[in-house]
């Protein structure tokens, strides 16, 4: 795989998340009844960071959850390797809450579809909104994000790598070419 | 991950750990309002039970349904077996009907291997003769690990009719792989010497067997063994080998008690001990569902299936 470009650096990621936090508050008229649910793996630290920003801005702790969508994937019978299943941890009732689902990259939309199925098995939120750090296009399903850190038109042969300090060596978004 | 689960011959501790990790997730699924995930949607699983069973068959069927698979049940008594059809023909018929996996219980040791030979689809051994019952051992080990955190260095004592017990054999394979030592105890007639190996001790002295044990598992005493001359009488057996409060005083403080079920109360285990807080018998059944969901996921998901 060949490196092509750095798309976002640490400061860019922080600013994008601050903007998304403002947009979430504006659209929902505050943080009442909100919940943030990150999709494994990198949606989870992004959800925690958004939660911290909402606390700074509004002085409230928005409930945080972790969602694993492996058991809901529509390609489980086709994949060569068995994906590791991780725990879904949503330690609050999502019924009647405005849930913001958070992931790092929005691509085909299949992960989001699986996440919507997984979420509705947990309860009936009053609404589900979608926040992503990068929207790289190439949707295969009628899904769009409500909050986007950066729109990044890509070729299918390209790979977007989101690295976050919580799990990687630093905060950075990179574009690579798959060989 | 191996394609079938017949015994633990070619399994590693890492593979077992992967089963346990996914079983943890399955517990979380079972606590949800909708206790079902679509991971095996579109698959058909056959529970082929050539021998009677209640908890194992129901546990497997529910596990498959919780994963959204379709389940067909083959009950030997109501089948063409009574017309003389062979095991091979039965399996080939079920194969032709589009079954994606077989869960097999059979009174003959090695039957699950035969099914695995006749079918290209994954086979899970749900108990074959006296040879193996791997998912029971997995749920036993999972239940103990849940209590101890790790099985490393733990002494697990299994008391009863070891000779005819596939549960004892599978546990004697699995528990030492996870770092535990296993002591098998029973009357000399029911204690085959060939089971002794690294990590497994055999003794007829039940007081010595239970001394310092972290957990004691009582095995079901199969009454038909008395007719075969292995035992004098039930009373005689119970007087010596029954797992009860008095015997448990020799074990470690707070040692746990297990039983694979079904129990003969006040024969191999005292009813009061089975109902006590140190008994994990109900938890074994609960864990069995999560462990079997995990096994189905690991064997059936992915192109290797």
From TrEMBL, chain A:
Entries under SUPFAM superfamilies matching the protein: PRTase-like
Enzyme Commission code: 2.4.2.9
Keyword Transcription: yes
InterPro entries assigned to the protein according to its UniProt record, in alphabetical order: PRTase-like, PRTase_dom, PyrR, PyrR_bifunctional
Catalysis performed (reactions): UMP + diphosphate = 5-phospho-alpha-D-ribose 1-diphosphate + uracil
Pfam families: Pribosyltran
Keyword Cytoplasm: no
Residues of the Phosphoribosyltransferase domain: 7-163
GO BP term (any one): regulation of DNA-templated transcription
This protein's UniProt keywords: Glycosyltransferase, Transcription, Transcription regulation, Transferase
Any one GO molecular function term: uracil phosphoribosyltransferase activity
Locus of motif PRPP-binding: 99-111
Function text: Also displays a weak uracil phosphoribosyltransferase activity which is not physiologically significant. Regulates the transcription of the pyrimidine nucleotide (pyr) operon in response to exogenous pyrimidines.
Protein family according to the UniProt entry: Belongs to the purine/pyrimidine phosphoribosyltransferase family. PyrR subfamily.
Name by which UniProt lists this protein: Bifunctional protein PyrR
Species this chain originates from: Deinococcus yavapaiensis KR-236
From TrEMBL, chain B:
E.C. numbers: 2.1.3.2
GO biological process, one term: 'de novo' UMP biosynthetic process
Superkingdom of origin organism: Bacteria
GO molecular-function terms, A-Z: amino acid binding; aspartate carbamoyltransferase activity
Binding site for carbamoyl phosphate: 55-56, 105, 133, 136, 261-262
Keyword Protein biosynthesis: no
Catalysed reactions listed for this entry: carbamoyl phosphate + L-aspartate = N-carbamoyl-L-aspartate + phosphate + H(+)
Record domain Aspartate/ornithine carbamoyltransferase carbamoyl-P binding: where: 3-146
Pathway assigned in UniProt: Pyrimidine metabolism; UMP biosynthesis via de novo pathway; (S)-dihydroorotate from bicarbonate: step 2/3
Cellular component terms per the entry's GO annotation: cytosol
Domain Aspartate/ornithine carbamoyltransferase Asp/Orn-binding: 152-299
Record: residues binding L-aspartate: 83, 166, 220
Alphabetic keyword roster: Pyrimidine biosynthesis, Transferase
Keyword flag Signal: no
Enzyme class: transferase
Chain's role: Catalyzes the condensation of carbamoyl phosphate and aspartate to form carbamoyl aspartate and inorganic phosphate, the committed step in the de novo pyrimidine nucleotide biosynthesis pathway.
Family to which this protein belongs: Belongs to the aspartate/ornithine carbamoyltransferase superfamily. ATCase family.
UniProt subunit comment: Heterododecamer (2C3:3R2) of six catalytic PyrB chains organized as two trimers (C3), and six regulatory PyrI chains organized as three dimers (R2).
Protein name: Aspartate carbamoyltransferase
Phylogenetic classification of the source organism: Bacteria, Thermotogati, Deinococcota, Deinococci, Deinococcales
Name of encoding gene: pyrB
């Amino acid at each position: 795989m060949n490196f092509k470009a750095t798309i976002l650096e640490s400061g860019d990621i922080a600013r994008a998340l601050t903007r998304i936090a403002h947009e979430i508050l504006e659209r929902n008229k505050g943080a009442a009844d909100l919940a943030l649910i990150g999709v494994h793996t990198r949606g989870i630290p992004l959800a925690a960071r958004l939660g911290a920003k909402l606390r700074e801005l509004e002085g409230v702790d928005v409930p945080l959850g972790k969602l694993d969508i492996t058991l809901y994937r529509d390609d489980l019978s086709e994949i060569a390797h068995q994906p590791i299943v991780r725990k879904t941890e949503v330690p609050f009732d999502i019924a009647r809450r405005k849930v913001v689902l958070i992931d790092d990259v929005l691509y085909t939309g299949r992960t989001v579809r699986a996440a919507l199925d997984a979420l509705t098995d947990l309860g009936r939120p009053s609404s589900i909104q979608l926040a992503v750090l990068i929207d790289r296009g190439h949707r295969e399903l009628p899904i769009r994000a409500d909050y986007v850190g950066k729109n990044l038109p890509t070729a299918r042969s390209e790979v977007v790598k989101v690295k976050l300090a919580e799990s990687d060596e630093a905060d950075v978004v990179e574009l690579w070419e798959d060989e | 991950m191996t394609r079938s689960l017949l015994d633990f011959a070619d399994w590693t501790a890492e593979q077992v750990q992967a089963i346990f990790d996914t079983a943890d997730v399955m517990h979380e699924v079972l606590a949800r309002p909708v206790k079902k995930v679509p991971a095996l949607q579109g698959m058909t699983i056959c529970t082929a039970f050539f021998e009677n069973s209640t908890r194992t068959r129901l546990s497997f069927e529910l596990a498959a349904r919780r994963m959204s698979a379709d389940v067909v049940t083959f009950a030997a008594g109501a089948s063409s077996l009574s017309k003389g059809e062979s095991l091979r023909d039965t399996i080939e018929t079920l194969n032709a009907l589009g079954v994606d996996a077989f869960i097999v219980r059979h009174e003959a040791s090695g039957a699950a291997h035969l099914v695995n030979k006749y079918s290209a689809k994954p086979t899970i051994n749900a108990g074959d003769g006296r040879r193996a019952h791997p998912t029971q051992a997995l749920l036993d080990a999972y239940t103990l690990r849940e209590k101890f955190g790790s099985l490393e260095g733990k002494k697990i004592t299994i008391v009863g009719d070891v000779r005819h017990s596939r549960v004892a054999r599978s546990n004697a394979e699995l528990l030492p792989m996870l770092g535990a030592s296993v002591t098998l105890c029973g009357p000399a007639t029911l204690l085959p010497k060939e089971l002794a190996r690294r990590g497994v001790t055999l003794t007829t002295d039940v007081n010595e067997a239970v001394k310092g044990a972290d957990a004691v598992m009582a095995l079901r005493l199969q009454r038909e063994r008395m007719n075969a001359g292995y035992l004098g009488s039930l009373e005689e057996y119970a007087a010596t080998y029954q797992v009860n409060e008095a015997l448990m005083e020799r074990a470690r403080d707070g040692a746990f008690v297990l039983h694979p079920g079904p129990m003969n109360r006040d024969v191999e285990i005292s009813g009061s001990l089975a109902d006590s807080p140190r008994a994990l018998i109900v938890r074994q059944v609960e864990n069995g569902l999560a462990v079997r969901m995990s096994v189905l996921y690991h064997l059936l998901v992915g192109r290797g299936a």
